[in-house]
Amino acid sequence: MLGSTEIIILVVVIGVLIFGAKKIPELAKTFGKAKGEFEKGKIEADKDLKEFKEEIDSASKDKNVKTD
Length: 68
Known about the structure:
This protein is mostly helical. The protein has helices at residues 4-19, 23-67.
């Protein structure tokens, strides 16, 4: 059975064989940018969801106040 170190080394070797040594840094840079964009989108979605929940709560409170 392979350990985590062996798996990482195997992935790196396969990556170099498939893409070439010169292409690896470019792929890593692209992957880093994509991950950053994903994180920004996730934060924005969480913020929008929080705002939506606050709007729902305030509308619910306003409705309860008017009916009392």
